[in-house]
Known about the structure:
- One of its GO terms (molecular function) is ubiquitin-protein transferase activity.
- With about 270 residues, the chain is mainly alpha-helical.
- The protein has helices spanning about 15-30, 60-65, 65-80, 90-95, 110-115, 125-140, 150-160, 165-180, 180-185, 190-195, 205-215, 260-270; strands at about 45, 55, 230-235, 240-245, 250-255.
- It has 3 domains: about 15-95 and about 165-200, no CATH class; about 105-160, no CATH class; about 205-270, no CATH class.
- The chain contains 12 helices and 5 strands.
- The chain has a 3-stranded mixed sheet with strand order 3-5-4, with helices on one face.
- α3 packs across α8 (about 165-180).
- The longest helix is centred in the N-terminal third of the chain and has 17 residues, at about 15-30.
- About 20% of the residues are buried.
Amino acid sequence: MSVVCLHFSGDPAIGDGVTRHFFATIMSKLQAGFEMKFVPGGTLLFEGEQDHLIPSTSQLLLESDFFVVAGRMIGHSFLHDGPCLGGLSPAILHVLFEATIAIKDCVDLDIRETIKLLEGTAELSSEEKNLINELALSWDLPLVTCDNRRWLFDKLILHAVLGRTSRQVKQLRRGLKETLIWPLLTERKDTIPLLFPRASDLQCTPRVSDLMLVTQILPPNSQELDIGHDLDVTVVESNLPSSSTCFHQLKLPGHYKEYCTFERDILALFGH
Length: 272
């Protein structure tokens, strides 16, 4: 694969905000897919349910070392305090960092339903046994019996999830190693959830949305302001900002898109 070259055009921009925007952009592409037409069905690198995403089995992506690039993107974004890749399957983390595989990690719903027949202790019908045995034989595994039922369940999940993604995971590991964060991940297991958080932990609640909205319209140096006491900020539905002075509460409308408009209304309230 050729080296990716980037050319930035437009207004000059410097500072941490530019770095955050860059890594937010590339990580969103990694999560949602790249806009390329050479791969049939799109270019999603990870597919499946949230918190059970596994690498795509596309041979073209694999042969192009796309997952090495993905590992580099994840590592560099982590090092520069950018977004992380959320929702990765515990099965993939099992290969990388010894996590646990679950039935939901199987993307193929037909195979998943067949494997689920082995759960529990209920007696299997002839039709159910035929479905299980057909799948087991296709992967060179023995026929189901009363004694090997649980063992076969684990083996079928392992093969269904990891059988076609082991090379992708190896590429992902290689990309992470190239960013030099691998020793940290292997020696400090508590950093793994920071690099690969669960999607459910990244959900944007209304409170988080309001906080993001407020911080986007405030000037860059607003964090340095010292007002001498705590000030509660609430996002409300109104035309202009207002305040409850006795309660140290600032009420900001949620319709602002640009700081200049927000500044104009604030100054108008102060009589400027």
